[in-house]
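Risk mitigation, structural track. In case the binding assays with N-oxalylglycine fail to produce interpretable data, a predicted complex structure has been prepared as a fallback.
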Amino acid sequence: MATTTETVTSATLNGITVSSDSTYIPRGPVKTKLNFFQDPADGSKPWNYVEKPTDGSPQRNFGENVVEVTMNDIRGHESEFHLDKDAFQVVQNIASEEKDFTDDEHIKKVYYPEVEKLLLENVPGAHKVTLFDHTVRRSNPGAPRAPVTRVHVDQTARSTEWRVNLHNPEEAEELLKGRYRIINVWRPLNGPVQASPLGFASAETTDDNDLVPVEHRYPHRTGETAAVRHNPAQKFYYWSGMKNDERLFLKCYDSKAGVGQRVPHTAFVDPRTPEGAPGRESIEVRALVYG
Ligand code: OGA
Ligand code: FE
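Fallback model:
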């Protein structure tokens, strides 16, 4: 039987080394450009349409401020980051019975209970979890949802309160008296991640003044998200080569004062991604966490 010997080469461009090995997993700190918020020129309140308008009108009324930042790798430092301090946290070695992630009803039946259990076990004080949404992202051109390359936070204080009323109408009044949070549980579907990793800025390093409420216009309802202005104090991270049995908790809101409240996040282009690496696929499940 013939054997082949492959030589792994690498090319260096602008100080970035790109491997010819398509299985290469980029790790360690890297510089990349992120899209931040640019205030609308006319001073109007920012808005965006969730679905691209079909009549050619613009999808949003605000611009982009593209800034180069360093993404720091938390791999090997996982235990240094906490929901109450950074507004993100990771969990490892999590098994799942859901394999395909192609059928929404199956995801709700099989994957949701696993996520609920994970949150109850890993978020101190949590006594009730309501999962209200999930998004599967794939990178192929026809995919309905792709990685998001814009720094944002999914909810604000206002939209979290709306969500409590929308998803727990009977108990909302009582639940709003206690602590309530929105936490996204993010994982890849085709890890280890080589392309479009998720970046996130520690809540400790982000200023409320840099978070800008954006009217989030769905076809039948309007929500509110937050766009993020760049600030050199922001410290960005990612988790290199994230695997399918790893979970990232992204806290979007916390009603408790004095803790890290929310984590700005975005997908980013890693210039070290080797040619031929698969596009990133992932799922995030959104949860109201009470207690
Ligand atoms: C999220 C999110 C973007 C992405 O999980 O809230 O914004 O590219 N994800 O996965
Ligand atoms: Fe998000």
